[in-house]
Amino acid sequence: MYVRHLQLGSFRSWERVDLALGPGPTVFVGRNGEGKTNLVEAVGYLATMSSHRVAGDAPMVRHGDPQAVVRAALRRGDRELLVEIEINPGRSNRVRINRNPLPRPRELLGLVRTVLFAPEDLALVRGDPTERRRFLDDLLVTRMPRLAGVRADYDRVLKQRNALLKTARLARGKAIETLDVWDGHLTDLGGQLLAARLQLIADLAPHMAQAYADVAGEGAAPAGLGYSATVPLAGDGAAVSPGARVCSAEELTAAMQQRVAERRADELDRGMTLVGPHRDDLVIHLGPAPAKGFASHGESWSLALALKLATFALLRGEGEDPILILDDVFATLDAERRAALAAVARSAEQTLITAAVLEDVPAELRGARVEVADGFAVMVKDAVPVGEERVP
Ligand SMILES: Nc1ncnc2c1ncn2[C@@H]1O[C@H](COP(=O)(O)OP(=O)(O)OP(=O)(O)O)[C@@H](O)[C@H]1O
């Protein structure tokens, strides 16, 4: 899949952009603050309907304007896909596919697949569990769009259950009966989410081990993935080791029901839900230790890169290359990591790269570029390097 044409209206710093793009690598180059990241952020938004930089939609809309529009024509094999998103902060967004409005905007999720690697990804290794849960759940939904509904319902039930727990201690009686009903919804949805996360980690783990070995080189400690759960997992997390059977949603719902019952007194005391996927964490291991708190800065950066390359490999293995977006990352990589990333970037169906200095981008990725300056983004096509065939 690749973006053939991108049009933005009032998106971030861009009043209007109208840009034709091609398959293969394209470098967006320009001075700091010219709006390069804003352009590729719009492509990422097509996939997750969120930004990799901030929570919420308000910052996506150009200061002073009421709404933003992202419109993209995508090519998938010999088929064309037109996606239009109207971003309305504070109100629901509107999405059209091939000019047909979607009843619910979240039905877009899973249709456009991107893998975006950016400096913010260091937080996947060093930051709060929230970052890693979001990474897992975004990828879950990309692979299984049905889970967008499960995720949204879980968040809604969690909110309502938390509100009830805050008042239940005083009200008791009726409130406790209502709590039983919410427990049923929470554990049913939680079991589905948990099973899907564990399956995803089992699928991603071998790609992560390979990608880290490629990035960090011979002799580096092996990288692995695990899961830290608020419910006991069979064999102390064995469900996430390669080849192990992943528990079913029903088994995990049952385990969650038991744990919720055990912790009811604590939950009433604290007025919040203490059991469930919203409190779990993806654990990234380097050798025998969890990377968070142990890995050096360079190792953490390599792990973040490997996690994104593993994601790319996983999605590619399912039949179609996702669009690879590399935001401002080459300047901070050493020669070995640059080469590992360039090899994947070169092979992807479409790679969008931002850089303030063109020379920071490996030469083999520099064929087509978009020069970004003074509110304009202009495609400049260089001569195709000898021996290569590209259709920019
Ligand atoms: N909602 C908005 N409305 C207007 N301008 C915005 C909005 N959001 C961001 N900007 C502006 O966009 C600019 C940043 O754009 P962007 O992050 O794309 O820069 P960049 O070219 O990638 O820079 P760098 O090379 O420093 O990473 C800033 O000047 C910022 O003030």
TrEMBL record:
Gene3D superfamilies: P-loop containing nucleotide triphosphate hydrolases (3.40.50.300), RecF/RecN/SMC, N-terminal domain (1.20.1050.90)
InterPro entries (UniProt xref): DNA-binding_RecF, DNA-binding_RecF_CS, P-loop_NTPase, RecF/RecN/SMC_N, RecF_2
Annotated RecF/RecN/SMC N-terminal domain residues: 2-355
Keyword Protein transport annotated: no
GO annotation, cellular component aspect: cytoplasm
Chief site of localization: cytoplasm
Compartments, as annotated in UniProt: Cytoplasm
Positions in coiled-coil regions: none
Origin: domain of life: Bacteria
Family label: Belongs to the RecF family.
SUPFAM superfamilies, sorted: P-loop containing nucleoside triphosphate hydrolases (SSF52540)
Gene: recF
One of the record's GO molecular function terms: ATP binding
UniProt-listed GO biological process terms: DNA replication; DNA synthesis involved in DNA repair; double-strand break repair; SOS response
Binding positions for ATP per the UniProt entry: 30-37
Alphabetized UniProt keyword annotations: ATP-binding, Cytoplasm, DNA damage, DNA repair, DNA replication, DNA-binding, Nucleotide-binding, SOS response
Organism field: Blastococcus mobilis
Function statement: The RecF protein is involved in DNA metabolism; it is required for DNA replication and normal SOS inducibility. RecF binds preferentially to single-stranded, linear DNA. It also seems to bind ATP.
Protein name in the entry: DNA replication and repair protein RecF
